[in-house]
Design a protein that fits this description.
Length: 451
């Protein structure tokens, strides 16, 4: 139910990997990559998938529509089907394009936003606060008039907005039909205790607050996005907006895996008398994280919490000794619980993937990693798997399979092609290289450099 959650302890997870995440510089995804990621988000059990910004480009529109028409219609055995959300500015044109993209989903949501901080209203929008309220109300009413009953409204840069103005604009948005009020700390400006207080005050002061869900949308400019989201939950937010691996504008968004695991491990005891929980199934965290890394080309830092390459590595002798005696000495969760197989030579089915493995075992492990290949792609990957397995002692690990995927399946987002390379070197003079590349616009460019 859009504006209501019957269990007061349930926290919705709203994933914006495909929207804010894709706004990360260089993280462009193709439609088929977006659909595959959305499928994994479904397996993870996120409540809402923000699939994109449909007015932004025809490609964005098509990707959102395909996700709405496929992932947004696949009902799981327990009745779960994710809400599919499209972002729009507070303009009728944006909203109607967003609606066209998402309306095929069983549970479509329009997310509309306008900035409410002084700096944004004056410098960017060049609007008065009264005009901003009017635009917000018109936008929400318009979304409702299209037949959408799940409407999220965001006052952009709420973290730096005047609280009294927020009470007013949010109260008007509720009256116009908004069912979720998302509170973005757009610039990552707030401290956790400050952001928690913002959520509390909004719940106490916005007229009609009891009829909507409050949501957080925290950016990581000070490295506080996860902490701020949790502070929001402590103060009554029941939707948290996150992205896989924390990707997003600038320093990114609150990371899905950090927020989900913090609530999984601490939700029962550390949120006053509330026993918070989410619908996330953590065993899909690692495959989804790897897929997002692979398709966006944005690799996680090795020490990234939960999904970094070192997150379950133990280097010093003292730590290794502790681990041998009892894994809980240095690990607060098991790697298996987040879908990472320790030592990693075992598939989820307990099969070593080596030169004797068959197509079925390889395909099963790839599926566990989130890659559902058609027969043609599977054949290519399997042929290469056999070649590599012949040479590699001890079998292939998940990372090797991921590499085969990029290498062979042709599913990777090929943006740039190297079309020519010439290198000159010697013991005298400067080494010189000339590289020619064809870009996504099919234009060939070249550059020569010495060094
Ligand atoms: O950070 C932000 O303010 C946003 C809004 C569009 C919700 O991404
Ligand atoms: Zn954002």
């Amino acid at each position: 139910i859009p504006g209501r959650i019957d269990d007061p302890n349930y926290v919705r997870i709203f994933d914006t990997t495909l929207r804010d995440g894709e706004q990360s510089p260089g993280a462009t995804l193709t439609t088929s990559e977006k659909v595959e990621i959305a499928r994994n988000l479904g397996r993870l059990g996120v409540d809402v998938i923000e699939a994109g910004f449909p007015i932004a480009s025809p490609d964005d529109f098509n990707a959102v529509k395909e996700i709405a028409d496929t992932v947004g219609r696949e009902v799981y055995e327990d009745g779960y089907v994710p809400v599919i959300c499209g972002l729009s500015r507070a303009f009728e044109k944006d909203i109607s394009v967003a609606w066209d993209a998402i309306k095929g989903a069983k549970r479509p949501r329009i997310h509309t936003f306008i900035a409410t901080s002084k700096i944004h209203m004056e410098a960017k929008l060049k609007k008065t606060p009264d005009e901003v309220v009017e635009i917000a109300v018109k936008a929400v009413k318009y979304a409702k008039s299209l037949g959408c009953d799940d409407i999220e409204f965001s006052p952009e840069d709420a973290g730096r907005s005047d609280p009294d103005f927020l009470y007013r604009v949010l109260g008007c948005a509720i009256e116009a039909g908004a069912t979720t009020l998302n509170i973005p700390d757009t610039t990552g400006w707030n401290m956790p205790w400050e952001f928690g207080e913002v959520i509390k005050k909004l719940r106490d002061n916005v007229p009609g607050a009891e009829n909507v869900i409050f949501s957080t949308h925290c950016h990581n400019d000070l490295g506080l996005a996860t902490a701020n989201s949790l502070a929001g939950a402590l103060n009554g937010a029941r939707q948290l907006e996150v992205s896989v691996n924390g990707i997003g504008e600038r320093a990114g968004n609150a990371s899905m895996e950090e927020v989900a695991m913090a609530i999984a491990l601490k939700g029962k005891d550390m949120f006053d008398s509330q026993a918070l929980y989410t619908g996330i199934n953590p065993v899909y965290i690692t495959p989804t994280s790897k897929m997002v890394e692979e398709y966006t080309g944005m690799k996680c830092q090795p020490h990234k919490a939960i999904v970094g390459a070192n997150a379950f590595m133990h280097e010093s002798g003292i730590h290794q000794d502790g681990m041998i005696k009892n894994k809980s000495t240095y690990e607060i969760m098991s790697p298996e619980s987040i879908g990472l197989n320790r030592g990693n030579q075992q598939s989820g089915a307990g099969i070593v993937l080596g030169k004797h493995s068959g197509r079925n075992a390889v395909s099963t492990r790839l599926k566990e990693l989130g890659y559902d290949l058609d027969i043609e792609k599977l054949n290519k990957v399997f042929a290469r798997f056999k070649e590599v397995a012949e040479k590699k002692k001890g079998g292939l690990e998940d990372d090797d399979l991921e590499a085969l995927m990029s290498d062979q399946a042709g599913v990777i987002n090929e943006m740039w092609k190297v079309t020519g390379l010439q290198v000159m070197s010697g013991d005298a003079g400067m080494p010189t290289a000339t590289v020619k590349m064809e870009g996504p616009d099919k234009m060939e460019r070249y550059v020569s450099a010495t060094g």
